[in-house]
Amino acid sequence: MRSVPLQAYGLPMTNACEPMPKQCVIPAKYRLLMALAAARPDGVSAFAADARAAGASEAEIAEAVEIRRSVGAAAPRARTLRSYLALWAAAMMVGAALLMQTAAPVRADVCGDVGGVQASAGGCSQPGAPAGDPPPQAGIPQPPWLSVIQRRDPQFADSYLAMRERILRDGAIPAKYKLLIGMVTDAIAAHPDGVRMLADNARAAGATEPEVTEAVEVGYLYGGTAALVMGSNAFGS
Description:
The protein is mostly helical. The chain has a single domain, classed as AhpD-like (Up-down Bundle), CATH 1.20.1290. It has helices spanning 28-38, 44-53, 58-71, 81-102, 146-152, 154-170, 175-188, 192-204, 209-231. The chain is globular. Residues 1-15, 74-80, 94-123 and 129-140 have low confidence and may be disordered.
């Protein structure tokens, strides 16, 4: 028997944990913002009102709507290659950019180098030592496909990077919850790589395993069993 999301029956979902026999770990306003990003068009206003009543700011609601418009249920299905890449970039920039803004330093700081050079397996590079292969430069990790786009369309790649920086500057939702919202929309949109990357980046931004699990379950409420199966990519192999 195929599972049908509760929203398909028109049931109000003021608490996305109501069907789940456990205590929620994600604050109510962020669960409702996830629901807003995942909901059908006729449910957006109601979820925005519920999120506002649960304490979400207008900036947080606007940001959830922006994520929805970029990679969520409101995104059109018929796309050109260029528009598809733009939508995928919106999801990836959330994970790649916010990870570097929120994750604790784990690389070059142990060598006393604030430049971000990664230490080799043999230890830290000493001044004056043979350079060999240049060490990787510090910066925001990029998805594998971006270098291909940069070679073919530098202008588009620049616009992607500018969009990422704008989201970082104007962001109102805490990083881990923004990443989980993106993960939910990717689960519903059947993007397994996006689910995997955004889940990992949410963990790096401070999301706990119960929070990741709960976000996957919220996705199920609005995307059905297919979204639950796709959401399982958040847990690795």
